[in-house]
Specification:
The complex is a heterodimer of chains A (709) and B (297). With 709 residues, chain A is an alpha/beta fold. Chain A is built from 23 helices and 26 strands. Chain B has one domain (36-53, 81-294): MetI-like (MetI-like fold), CATH 1.10.3720. The chains are: A alpha/beta (709), B mainly alpha (297).
Chain lengths: 709, 297
């Protein structure tokens, strides 16, 4: 194989991919063209089912047993990949083209040492000696900023953290110095602050090694941070492509534009500028409409024009759009400036009496160490301090968010509230009654129905064996809202109306529902007993952008109508900023900072909040952020730092006092509290992390012709 | 919210029986399952209609040592011949099938009731309940199964009820293990947590929320176990520990006539042996087919 180094690293032309199922041929990707130049980073965004991963598989020439490349060409450095022999492809994969997957743990062999997995890449593809391979592997582990590479070489995958595993996977992909790196949602499984580190690493590496990248993600904010060009896919087609600046500032396709309306950008506000979900659903691959795939969901749809024939990619003219292309017949007729990218404004909520009061709540788990050594030392019981002295309250109609990364104790707290666990100490008052030490079997029906929950995973939230209607009806019967079967049925129907699902979903089974629809049923179930408070544990984090926006809006609409208190548990600060009135930031079981949303998002910050704010990707090229990348890993809850829990990773650590002493809680008169050794005055002087330009400074309100790219 | 107001007439879902038949119809995707199901259905029909379709009285000696196809003295044919006492083999196979299927089904259902109960208990409560139940199960499973059967029947006497008891004792630990494993997994699902948070009783959670979702693997295992139990009943009959005579029992039929295998009349023992094998094969193929269909979707 003779590669032509002057040719683009990858050149895809008019690619059509299909899957063959029992139902016949299903086109997965249609008319796909893409060129990747040396050192360039290409982003591929789209919601699930849009074909972005299928493209990656086609580039690797691995379509599985039921997939096929129907037409088109994929050229790697000028050589047609579709014509390569399996032998040639094997040599190419892993040495010239590497792929990084979503789940780092699944990409590493759990029974082999990391060192031997890393070295294998080099000994197989380059045939160099074991010693030489070892040296290069260690060198690369240093490049991906893993502490103590020699130790990592001698470790098994389960002995290092998820973030470190993903770094090893990246190192492995880079070992043979590939020309092209395919990344399929490489950070989706990781925590936000860890994600920020990996994202930066990926961006740095493409600069250092000149590696071209194709970065697949559903997260527009991440794409903005790592890519030069972006391709937006919808239902198997690219609908828009362009440089990051051009596409993010002047999106031309109604779908792209709609996506931005679904993301809680810093400019969105739940009252003044709510999210505007895209209506309808992604069509199934065999039910795609004629003409434009997005037609049935588009506000600018024109009958007789948008539903005819094949719509090709068109160049957007103008200084900014020299290589900005869009698959829309009406791109130059639609004036987005005239319309707002968000829904109708609503009056702010009024808050009532205090519904929930948490005082000094603690939850410790006992861990029994049954090893002989522990017994001899007489320390066979250790405690996991899942929640330590939690203090906060919530009023009627208010949305309080608990924010934190995995292991921060937010789920434990939800369990205690729901009565699945009981608090070790402290008090929780709900509607005037203590519930902290009462488990669910000892609570009255009244107490139980007053406090309900919406779960995270749409695929787990409904029982697959029972009908949707039956599951909601059970709640109504259980809580004694109604007892007459006809009235129960009527009530279920009304709840289905409220969550905007058709009434014939009553007899459907969960497997016939999409993720978003299941989440709606979960919301109907939680609200069936008219609760005074609903705990929502990451209710939209597993959903696609446009579906998530719809579910978020629905949740807030019902909350508004019923004046329900919402306790929103999340790791995503942009969603939290958008919908909550007050925020509690947790780290390793303790509250680091709490206050109103505005207080949390402006100085004074707790250093952890500051890092979190910096870590959240924002899909707006004009918003500037101060970069704070946290070093190190989350400490184990079994062995937390003695002083401030954040002291091991804190970039603003002031000295030994942070390691040894519990930080004091600085209170302001508005109820803003920060637990930190740094004096409040000093924290006040910190510059804001996120800088949002005012509206008239913004590019998109100006004429794109004037602003050169 | 205006979407659904108009649709007051909601299409009713199909009745439960229709849905059942539809799931069974899925088996047509697998020829192994179809064949197995066909064999089993044939035996079941034969057992149910034995009183009407059996050509002779199964316990009436007519003509000893008749070969298959020989004519009976009072008209009719011994399609499969007769045994050493002159009883018609085909009629005995039919009536014996009725007994074998009845006791195999009864014993397996009872074993399942006990196994599911224990498995749910161990898997849902975990902790010491799990440790105790699992320990007892492991002790029982560590005995050679046949020795266990012989001991129980020898001690309690050969009767239908005792055979059922022996099967329950020996096979419910295995069922318990399957149910326990499934329960451990299902109990962590959000819908179970949702049921817990609305204060449902443990009974409701186990039977309504957990058990229906464990049915897939259990139905497959049930078919396999029906096969094992058929063999067990046959083996016990062969050892003389089966159902009391004179009613026919396949295992007993083989045992009674085994002396004549070398004496020129092998069909007397071979025909009931084939009946046992065929039925067990049918159950195993049915189980395979169901597994195949279930794993496809």
């Amino acid at each position: 194989m003779q590669f032509d180094d002057s040719a683009p690293v990858l050149e895809i032309k008019d690619l059509n991919l299909s899957y063959f199922t029992r139902a016949g041929e299903i086109p997965a990707v249609i008319d796909f063209s893409l060129t990747v130049n040396k050192g360039e980073s290409i982003g591929l965004v789209g919601e699930s089912g849009c074909g972005k991963s299928t493209v990656a598989m086609a580039i690797m020439q691995y379509m599985g047993s039921n997939g096929a490349i129907r037409s088109g060409s994929i050229k790697f450095k000028g050589v047609e990949m579709n014509e390569m022999s399996p032998e040639q492809l094997r040599n190419l994969r892993g040495s010239e083209i590497s792929m990084i997957y979503q789940e780092p743990f699944a990409s590493l062999n759990p029974s082999l040492l990391l060192g031997s997995q890393l070295k294998e890449v080099l000994t197989t593809h380059e045939g160099i000696s074991d010693q030489e391979a070892h040296e290069r592997a260690v060198q690369l582990l240093e490049d991906v900023k893993l502490p103590d590479p020699e130790r990592v070489m001698g470790a098994y995958p389960h002995q290092i953290s998820g973030g470190q595993q993903q770094r090893v996977v990246i190192a492995m992909a880079l070992l043979s110095q590939p020309s092209l790196l395919l990344l399929d949602e490489p950070t989706t499984a990781l925590d936000v602050t860890v994600e920020a580190g990996i994202t930066k690493l990926i961006a740095d590496i493409s600069k250092k090694y000149g590696t071209s990248q194709i970065y697949i993600s559903h997260n527009l904010g991440l794409i903005l941070e790592v890519c030069d060009r972006v391709f937006v896919m919808y239902s198997g087609e690219v609908v828009e492509e362009g440089t990051i600046n051009s596409l993010f500032t002047w999106p031309k396709h109604p779908y792209t534009h709609g996506l931005f309306g679904c993301i809680p950008l810093p400019t969105a506000d739940k009252n003044a500028a709510p999210l505007q979900p895209i209506r309808g659903q992604l069509p199934l691959p065999h039910e795609r409409p004629n003409g434009c795939n997005f037609g049935p969901r588009c506000d600018h749809f024109q009958e007789g024009r948008c539903d005819r024939g094949i719509i090709g990619m068109d160049y957007v003219s103008g200084a900014s759009g020299s290589d900005h292309r869009v698959r829309c017949l009406r791109w130059n007729e639609i004036d987005y400036g005239a319309e707002v990218a968000h829904g109708e404004a609503k009056p702010p909520m009024e808050f009532g009496d205090e519904v929930l009061a948490v005082e000094n709540m603690q939850k410790y788990y006992e861990v029994h160490d049954r090893s002989l050594a522990a017994m001899i030392k007489g320390r066979s019981v250790r405690y996991v301090k899942a929640n330590e002295s939690l203090n906060f309250s919530a009023r009627e109609g208010e949305t309080v968010a608990i924010v934190g990364e995995s292991g921060c104790g937010k789920s434990t707290f939800a369990k205690v509230l729901m009565g699945l666990e009981t608090a070790t100490d402290g008090e929780i008052m709900h509607a005037g009654e203590p519930i902290g030490e009462v488990d669910v079997h000892h609570r009255s029906t009244e107490q139980i129905r007053g406090l309900q929950m919406v779960f995270q995973n749409p695929f787990d939230t409904l029982n697959p064996s029972h009908t949707v209607g039956g599951q909601i009806a059970r709640v109504i019967r259980k809580f004694g809202v109604e007892s007459d079967p006809d009235k129960i049925r009527e009530r279920v129907m009304r709840l289905l109306d409220i969550v905007k699902l058709p009434r014939d979903f009553f007899y459907r089974r969960p497997r016939q529902l999409s993720g978003g629809q299941k989440q709606r049923v979960g919301i109907a179930r939680a609200f069936a007993g008219n609760p005074s408070m609903v705990i929502a544990d990451e209710p939209v984090s597993a959903l696609d952008v446009s579906v998530a926006a719809a579910v978020t809006e629905l949740l807030m609409e019902i909350q508004r109508e019923h004046k329900t208190t919402l306790l929103f548990i999340s790791h995503d600060l942009s969603v939290v900023r958008y919908l909550s009135d007050r925020i509690v930031v947790m780290y390793l079981g303790q509250i680091m900072e709490r206050g109103s949303t505005d207080e949390i998002f402006a100085p004074p910050y707790h250093p952890y909040t500051e890092a979190l704010l910096s870590a959240v990707p924002i899909a707006d090229p004009e918003v500037t952020k101060r970069e704070i990348v946290l070093e190190g890993n989350l400490p184990s809850v079994l062995n937390p730092p003695a002083g401030c829990p954040f002291s091991t990773r804190c970039p603003r650590k002031i000295g030994a006092i942070c390691d040894d002493e519990r930080p004091p809680v600085h209170q302001t008169n508005t109820g803003h509290a920060i637990a930190c050794h740094i004096p409040l005055e000093e924290l006040r002087e910190i510059e804001p992390v996120i800088n949002v330009p005012s509206l008239d400074e913004r590019l998109h309100v100006q004429n794109p012709e004037v602003v050169a790219d | 919210m205006a979407i659904a107001e108009s649709s007051t007439e909601i299409p009713q879902p199909p009745l439960a029986i229709v849905r059942w038949l539809r799931s069974i119809a899925l088996l047509r995707e697998s020829w192994v399952g179809m064949l197995g199901g066909g064999i089993v259905a044939l035996f079941v029909l034969m057992a149910i209609f034995a009183p009407w379709i059996a050509p002779f009285d199964p316990n009436q000696p007519i003509l000893p040592f008749a070969f298959p196809g020989d004519a009976a003295p009072d008209g009719g044919t011994f399609v499969l011949g007769t045994d050493h006492q002159g009883r018609d083999l085909l009629s005995r196979i039919m009536w014996g099938g009725q007994r074998v299927l009845f006791y195999a089904t009864a014993a397996t259902v009872c074993a399942y009731t006990v196994g599911i109960f224990m498995g749910l208990l161990a898997g849902y409560y975990r902790g010491w309940a799990d440790e105790l139940i699992s320990f007892v199960a492991n002790v029982i499973l560590s005995f050679p199964v046949m020795v266990l059967y012989v001991l129980i029947i020898a001690k309690l006497g050969a009767s239908g009820a005792n055979i059922i008891f022996a099967v329950v004792f020996a096979s419910s630990p295995g069922i318990m293990r399957i149910v326990r494993g499934l329960t451990l997994d299902i109990a962590t699902r959000d819908y179970v947590i949702a049921a817990q948070t609305r204060g449902e009783s443990t009974m409701f959670i186990c039977l309504i929320e957990i058990l229906p979702n464990a049915r897939g693997p259990l139905i497959v295992d049930f078919c396999l176990r029906m096969g094992y139990t058929t063999i067990t009943i046959g083996a016990l009959g062969f050892l003389g520990l089966g159902l009391p005579p004179p009613d026919p029992d396949w295992g007993g039929m083989i045992s009674d006539t085994r002396a004549f295998i070398t004496g020129g009349f092998p069909h007397m023992a071979i025909i009931p042996a084939i009946a046992v094998s065929l039925l067990v094969l049918g159950f195993n193929m049915l189980a395979d087919g169901m597994r195949e269909v279930a794993s496809r979707d």
